[in-house]
Amino acid sequence: MDKAQPGVGNLTKVLFVASTFVFWCSLYVYVPILPTYTQQLGGSLAMVGLVVGAYGVTQFVLRVPLGVFSDRLGRRKPFILFGTLTAAAGAAGFLVAGDPWGLFLARALTGVAASSWVAFTVLFSSYFPPGKAVRAMSLVTFVSGSSQLVATFAGGQIAQRFGSVSTFWVGLALAGVAALASLAVRDEPRRTTAPPSWEQVARVMTGSPRQYQSTAAGAVSPRQYQSAVAGAVPLLLIVSFNAVLSQYAAYVTTYAFTPIYAAGLGASRADLGLLVTAMLISSTIGQLLAGNLVERWGERVVVAGGMLIAATGIAATPFVATVPLLLGLQALNGLGRGLGFPVLMGLSVRYLPQQQRATAMGVFQATYALGMFAGPFAGGQIADAFGLDMVFYSTGVVCLASAGLALLIPGRRATRARNED
């Protein structure tokens, strides 16, 4: 059975958490003002969608290869360092961009940096026993969510006082700090393996009963195995496509068109930071609650319920005419996604041995990155053709579809979840 890295103490975990926190701060400090800054440089609503969505394009392309390569080397730390350095390059790209297409390229580069999240999550998971996978993912997503919360709030205040461009300078400085902090992260090398073929990657994706039995023998209990293969649809694909819809909802609203809707209501730059902060605060609360709620009700109920909450907050947006009410709806959106997303992430690797977890996590994160691009891109086309209101109505429907898809997750009784963890 795969075990946690021996001798990993609290100091190691604290150092990892610190590097993770600063890394995500560097990527999100300028996020609240990016849509309106794109318009300031002459971008249309469709162009806003492209700039915001560029972040997901490179993640979709790179996350599976990075996961496979990391599994092949048996190392995670070099990829974490690569991510922090690329985050710095992306922030520098924003500083020199003179038009929306320059912003597009810089945002795509920050997506390359975010692709290293595969290595972050798998390394942190390795610090814990396999049965604690969902709990570990809940904790690491809480850390990333907390850093994004701090960064977006601070970014709005910084932009209000010093101008939008100042947030890019802060992002560059934070990325440098993250690179230095990542040097202290512990990465115990594992035995290198032959690079998995694309056929092997496909087997990890499809997770057929025979594949689970052959690759995870001895890594899971009989009850875990029966739960993992109970559904007719492969578990990794279920949770990955559900994550696509969740990320679609987040990036088309909070990170793209909710700030533009708020600006139409008279919101300041500081208010734009508060909008993202409100979503992230409630999302963080949801991430903290997710592990306990799963033990009580099971993964399927928590994910489906969370997306129903998000659907309510998003679809009601066109009916509000004040920034405070919009903040409340953003909180609903964030709470719903925060409940479901760490559960999906934990399920993506729960039933696989350590040597395949980076590949599986790469598949999961590459797939959901498609939503990061598809949401803003589709939203931009919808906004130009039918107006902003239709963006929120259609995204509410997407959230309902996600709740329905969650019903395909194999059921697991609460008492069983507690016993296995």
Number of strands: 0
Q: What is the number of independent domains? A: 1
Largest sheet descriptor: none
Which series of helices and strands comes N to C?
HHHHHHHHHHHHHHHHHH
CATH topology: Growth Hormone, Chain: A
Approximately how much beta-strand content do the residues carry? under 5%
**Mean pLDDT over the full residue set:** 81
Principal-axes shape call: globular
Radius of gyration: 20 Å
Q: For this structure, what is the CATH class?
A: Mainly Alpha
Looking at CATH, the homologous superfamily is MFS general substrate transporter like domains
The CATH architecture can be given as Up-down Bundle
Question: Uncertain segments of ≥5 residues (pLDDT<50)?
Answer: 208-233, 413-421
Specify the structural class: mainly alpha
Ends apart, CA distance between termini = 14 Å
Number of helical elements: 18
Describe the structure.
The protein has 421 residues and is mainly alpha-helical. The protein has one domain (10-185, 200-420): MFS general substrate transporter like domains (Growth Hormone, Chain: A). It has 18 helices and no strands. Helix 2 (34-40) packs across helix 3 (45-73). The longest helix has 33 residues, at 354-386.
Write the layout of secondary structure elements.
Elements: H1 10-28, H2 34-40, H3 45-73, H4 77-96, H5 100-114, H6 117-126, H7 133-162, H8 165-182, H9 198-206, H10 209-215, H11 222-228, H12 235-264, H13 269-297, H14 299-315, H15 323-349, H16 354-386, H17 388-406, H18 414-420
Helix pairs in contact: 1-7, 1-8, 2-3, 3-5, 3-12, 3-16, 4-5, 4-6, 4-8, 6-16, 7-13, 7-15, 12-13, 12-15, 12-16, 12-17, 13-14, 13-15, 13-18, 14-15, 14-17, 16-17
